[in-house]
Each structure stands twice: as structure tokens, then as C-alpha cells.
Amino acid sequence: MTDGGSPALDQHETHEDENDQIRSRLDKRRKLEEAGVAVYPSSYPVTHTAAGAIGAFEEESEGVEVALAGRIVAKRKMGRATFLHIQDRTGRVQLYCKKDVVGEEAYDRLALLDLGDFVGATGEMFRTRTGETTLGVSRWTLLGKAVRPLPEKWHGLADKEIRFRQRYLDLLVNEDARRIFVARTRIIAAMRDVLNGKDFLEVETPVLQPLYGGAAARPFRTTHNALGVTLYLRIANELYLKRCLVGGLDRVYEFAKCFRNEGMDRSHQPEFTMMECYQAYADYQAGMDLTEELVAAAAEAANGSLRLAHPGGEIDLSPPWDRVTYFGALEAEIGADLSGADEAELRRQCGEHGVELTGDPSAAKMLDELFSAVVQPKLHRPTFVMDHPKIMSPLSKGKPGMPHLVERFEPVVAGMEIGNGFSELNDPSEQRARFEEQLRLAERDEDTMTVDEPFLRALEHGMPPASGLGIGIDRLVMLLTGTRQIREVVLFPPMRPASGGPEPDHDQADTER
């Protein structure tokens, strides 16, 4: 390689050696422009990707003419020939530039190229004496000059500060980062295919909402200047999707950005992606079946297999998944049935099992904290936790014959909850009573729902029985790519402002939710 260097930690701090390289690159740019070279042309007629060109040659063996384009990632000169490696989204390919083929003027200008520059090249594929499939260049074109050097270590960028703050560098030099985001795209596409194949309609619901609802969480708020009203970034899209059911759209889904103004840890981000879907005339059993199908399709798309390697042991995502009841699983761990426990008993159990409580939490909050601490981490195999307490589930339909339970499920894999679903409550009177109970709980728990009168009005027009399902896309991608940190699967995660920098560039430390 003929170039390199370390990237600055932020735009306000540039190391002296990098300044020297930038000056050198700008000088090369000037020389190219003085020679009449278009340093930033508009387009290039690419015929193949790097992988496509190599594959075509492997199939045909000779006579494969191509036009390739990509970023220079390696360069070496050997007498009257120069070898370049360029990289595109599919991989790398070697270019062989010979002086008596490309011409003396074009060959001499190769000296003005740096690592990171974009070039296009045309010619015929061949195999070198060392066996590397290579493009024999007949002519080349500069497509974009990189005036700032790229990371020196092409085998990986290890500094997380740089990786998350300058994700484009991470994608450029870390193959694993590219793998994760390719997998993410395939996972979402596979889930869409399943839902579209079942005649679900993809819809869009408001991100800015006059009332926040559909989950128990703290919202972000803003002001709509034109309307003169306070609006909230949605914490969920559930209540609007249910309005679609009221309106006769019997099967709907949405991949939605949701926002919750809360803490962060390895599996929580204030901004996240949720897929929610609703199907009329179905219950939570159908929701569990659909979850299994969606996750299986996503796993096949990401990895070509339903078996995942995991530090805790291999995970087989093949249906059917294990199913346990909420209170049954809790009793199996603590040795007591808490289905009828009062707040004093719940507080005692939390203390006994090391669950720290703050303030004056409600029974629902204590149950949630206790279950998350003692049961969920032990659910390694794909498992549906079913039949939750009614006090924790204000939007779920009650379980017949069990007034303290609802028809709700949560899919848990490798100790991580990846979704939530239930038979939807469609009784407007009961829904109003649940909302009002949430108001009473708000004095003790911040994360409660409000009384949504427009939604209640919609329910009063009649909503069919339905199954609802939400799957956290970020967590699903974590699971299917073997990633331990949610920021690894978000292209541009929020970051604290860089030290000395004025702008709130995306970074944040991990804190408990």
C-alpha cells in the first residue's frame, strides 16, 4: 500500500500526519484538474459488480469483457505495470494496468491516485500466474478523489467511538459490519414477503401523534408550530393500526420507527424499529404461529439456516417453540404461586431475589421486574411466555374463566424478549376501564397509558376480534446475526457530543433502562 493514516476522532481535531496527507491529496487533485481530468464525473457505465465479474469469468473462462467501478483499497507498482484492488458492495477485485496497454499518459496519472479514490475500469478478465482472477485494464477513469485518508488498518476498525460515530468507515473496513446490515435488509424483506403472501396490507401511520399510546413508556414531545399544538413522537403504532381494523382493513402491518424517552442498555435504544401487524378474526394462538413463521423466514434469509450458534448453546428456531405460562414459569423459579399475591408479598419476593425497587412501584411494575430478573434470563430456547397478568396488559383481551389473566404472549429467545402479542381487547367499555386504571397507576409509575378518547370512539363503532403482534426488528437482527449490542445493528446510533465538538453527533453510553 502507498497510503494510510488514522482518522480524526472528530471534525474539530486533525492530526498533523493527516494534515500532511490531505495536503498531498489536494495537490494531486490540482494536478489532475490542470491536466483536464474531471475529478468528480457524473456517472460511469458499470456492467458487472466485482463478484459478478469474477463469477462470469469462472463460468466462461475467457473473453469476458467488463466495466467495473469501486474504491481503491490497495495499490502497488511493479516496473511498467501497476496493480490495484478495488472494492464495491460485493467484494474486491484486482486490476492490472500495463503501461503499453492503457497508454503512457493514462499510466503516469496512476501515480496521482490514492487509497480511497473511486475509479472505473474496462477490459477483459484473466487469471494471473498466481491464480488470482483479475481485470486486464484497457482504460480507466477517475470517478471521485478522496481528499481525506481512510483508516490504515483494512483488517478492521476496532475503536467503537469511531465505528459508531463514523459508521461509513466501519462499513468500509469491517466486513462483519457490512454483513450485519446486509442481513438486516434481508430479514425485513423476508418478513414482508411472508406478510404480503398472507394478504396483509402494508400501511403507514402517524409518527407525530396528539396522544401517545399503545405501550407503557415515556414519550418525546415537540411543538407543531403551524397548528400550535403539542405532539408526541409515537411510542407505538398499535392504536392507529387498530383503527384500520375498524375501517375494514382486516389485515395490516407496518415497519415503524418508534421512540421512547428512556434509558439505554445493550438491548434498548430510544429510537428503534418495530414491525406490528394485526389480523381480524384471529386470536393470540394465531399470533404465536405467525411469529414462528416470520422468525423462521427471517433466519433463513439472514443465515440460510434455522440453527444459530450462540455462546449459551445452539438455538434451533424451528417450530413449534416451547410455551410456558407467565405465573407457571415464575413459580418454577421462585417456588411460590404469585398469581394472587398482594403488593406486600411481591415486594418481599423482589427483595428475596435481589430485585432493586425504587419509589413506590405498583404490583404490575414489581411483577415485571421480578420476572425479568429471575425467569427471562433462563429462557434460552425459543419460548412463548403466555397468559400474562391483566394488571400488566391494558390492551389485551381477558382469558375466559381466569379474570386475572389475559390472552397475551411474549416470544423470548436466548433470554431476550423479541416481541409482544395478544388477542386484542375490542370491548370499548372494558377498554375505557383499563385506561382509567392506568391513570390511577400514573401516580406511582411514570410508564402508563393515557385515556385515548379518539381511539375509544373508534372502538365504539365496532372492531372485529383480532390478533396483534409486534416484533422488535433491532433485537431480531441482534439474535440472527449473533450480535450482543444493539448499537451494532443500528446504522447510525445516537451518540453523545464528541469532546470539544458543538454538535450532538450520535453517541450515548450504556445505562440501565
Which features does this protein show?
15 helices, 9-stranded mixed beta sheet, OB fold (Dihydrolipoamide Acetyltransferase, E2P), 21 strands, 32% helix, disordered C terminus, 513 residues, BirA Bifunctional Protein, domain 2, disordered N terminus, alpha+beta, elongated
Account of the protein in words:
Helices cover 32% and strands 24% of the residues. It is an alpha+beta fold and 513 residues long. The protein folds into three domains: 16-154, Beta Barrel (OB fold (Dihydrolipoamide Acetyltransferase, E2P)); 176-202 and 252-321 and 382-489, Bira Bifunctional Protein, Domain 2 (BirA Bifunctional Protein, domain 2); 325-380. α7 (175-197) packs across α15. The protein starts with 15 loop residues before the first helix and ends in a 32-residue tail after the last helix. Residues 1-14 and 501-513 have low confidence and may be disordered.
